[in-house]
Amino acid sequence: MIGAQFKPAAAAAFLGVPACEAAGLILDLTDLHGPGAADLRDELLYASSLPERFLILETWLLARIHSDLTPDAAVAHALAEFRRAPAGLSVGGTIERLNFSL
């Protein structure tokens, strides 16, 4: 088993859709990236070492970045606030300050 963890708001660049559209769904990689995604599985299975597997996964992901997706300005602002003072902020308070609702 191998996986990737994305920074906040970064998953959309790899999914090709805003992450909220994929929330709660179980998606096959081929649903997102077509039948060529099955080749990734084969490459990972036949790699001779763990470092080689991570390199294969990294290369595969980087080749599929959708750079045309621009993060929502409010989300980018909220993330910047959390980076500046992570212990002093709450999600609810930040949503309120940005005049957003869930």
UniProtKB/TrEMBL annotation:
Descriptive protein name: Transcriptional regulator, AraC family
Lineage top rank: taxon: Bacteria
Gene for this chain: txxe3901
Organism name: Thermobacillus xylanilyticus
